Structures are given as structure tokens and as C-alpha cells.
Amino acid sequence: MDGVERFVVVAGVIAAIVIALPTRAGLAKAGHRFAREYDLWIAPELMAAVDRAHRRDRWVLATAVLAAVLLFVLLPPATFRPFIVVAAVLPVFAVGRLLLGGRDFPVRAGRATVARSRAVGVTDYLRPTVPLAFALWVAVGGVAAVLGALWSEPAVLTGGVLLVVATLVVAGYVVALCRRPEPASGAEHLYLQDAWRVSRLDLTLSQLGFAAVYLGLVAAGDAPSGRVAVWVGVAVVATAAYALGVGGRARFRERLWPELPPGRLLSVGGPA
Q1: Using CA atoms, how far apart are residues 36 and 97, in angstroms rounded to an integer?
Q2: Contact 63/97 with Cβ under 8 angstroms?
Q3: Which residue spans traverse the membrane (predicted)?
Q4: Given CB 3.0 to 4.6 Å as the disulfide criterion, which of 4, 115, 160, 268 pairs with 145?
């Protein structure tokens, strides 16, 4: 390992530590942004739970950064590209968030719980076009893998395969998380959990969409002039998939909380 590689490894480890140990001010800022984006007023005593949820999410991110460092060390230079790291760490995000999902805001022991009158699914939280988005992301990865093999571009081949794997893992994560029950002490508590779930789903899908677009653009930048148009087309398809997959913020209110008018502020834990 030369000096540059050692620097990257050390910088990655330091970045993971910084991510895993957020400041109180940083957590408060993230919590207020979450509340603002999802039309919530969260009582101060409940903001501690939101802070814990954000802290756990950052632990997942820190783990993904360490996985990226490991990939940097293990992959041969001819294969290593930044988009490979992005695609490879997405399953870490998905699995980590799945393990945490539905357990971020538990009901206190001894308190009664409420439940929905029906089971919920993916399209209650995300756009009905999200299956098409997943299909397009798989197609983007598959095309990249095939073209990478035909044109002797090992980095693109590896990135395409990893994108397909990441898409399948994220799709499984989305289905499993959307079906996971949400024990709640009341309607406001249930809405808080719905909002948090949608925010994590949208973030994960955004990361997957970014990986697919990035793969096409980087491949276009490295390709000979005669192949640039092909990779630009791949990036355009990936961008279309992003538009089809991301955007659950309005969807879950429409499907699960139709009685709430747009922009209505919901108080959780006390009067607004």
C-alpha cells in the first residue's frame, strides 16, 4: 500500500468516525428539517427519540463508508471506480435500515397500542411507478454489465453487476420495510413512524438512483467518442427511473392520511 492509498484509508476511517459521532447541534438541525419537511410539530420530549433515530441512521452510513474503504483496499486498480463503491455500499444501507426500520419509535412498556384496520404495502408509501423504476435500474445495470464485457471494460462490467445486485437488495428492503408493522400509542405516533419510514425509503431510493445515473455518466466520460451516445442514453434511462421511483412524501399522506389536508401541521407529543 503506497502513501496515497494509506491516506485514502485513513481519511475514510476518520470520516466514518465523524459520521458516527454527530454533534448535538447537527442532530437537532436534522430533526427540525425532518419535522418541517413532513409537516410535524414534535414535542421536545420526543425530539430525543428523533435524534436517536438520526444517530442510528448515521451509524449505518458510517458502516457503509467503512465498507467502501474495504473495497478500495481489496479491488484491483483496473477495476476500481467511485461508482463501483457507490453501488456496492447500497446493500449495506438497505440491510442496516431494514434492521432498524419499525423500531425507531417504540411504544413505551405498559402503554396500549393502536393498529391500522388494513395491511399496508409499497404503494401506500411510494409512487405506483416504483416497480417500473426498479426494472429500469436493473436494466441499466444489466446493459452496463453486458457492454462492459463486450468492450473489455472491467470497471463498467463490475459496476453494472453491482448495480443489479444493489437494486435487487434495495427492492427487497422496500417490500419488507413497508410490510413491517408499526406499533403505535396513537394516531400522531403512527404518523410520525410513517413519516420517518417514507423519509428513509426516499433517501435509499435517491441513493440508488444516483448510483445508476453516475454509472452512465462516468462510463460516458471514459468511453471513446463512438460510444459516448450509448452511455448518455443509459444515464437518461437511469434519470427517468429516478423520477419514477422517488417522491413518497405526498403519496403516504394521500394513501394513509387522506383526512389531513396538504400542509396541515400535525402535533406529536403536545399542542403546536
Answers
A1: 22
A2: no
A3: 6-27, 59-77, 83-100, 132-151, 157-178, 198-217, 229-247
A4: 160
Residue 211 to residue 90: CA distance in whole angstroms: 9
Rounded Cα distance, 230 and 196, in Å: 38
**Phi, psi angles (nearest 5°) of residue 250:** -80, -30
Residue by residue, pLDDT tens for the chain (272 residues) are 677 778 888 998 999 999 999 999 999 999 999 999 999 998 887 888 899 999 999 999 899 889 888 888 887 776 677 777 777 788 887 888 888 776 778 777 767 677 777 888 999 999 999 999 999 999 999 999 999 999 888 888 888 998 999 999 999 999 998 988 777 888 888 889 899 999 999 988 998 999 899 888 888 887 888 888 999 999 999 999 999 988 878 889 889 988 888 778 888 875 54
Residues whose CB falls within 8 Å of the CB of residue 97, separated by 6 or more in sequence, listed in order: 57, 60, 173, 177, 200, 204
- Report helix, strand or coil for 33: helix
Q: How many residues does the chain have?
A: 272
CB of 22 closer than 8 Å to CB of 58: yes
Place of cell 446493500: 91
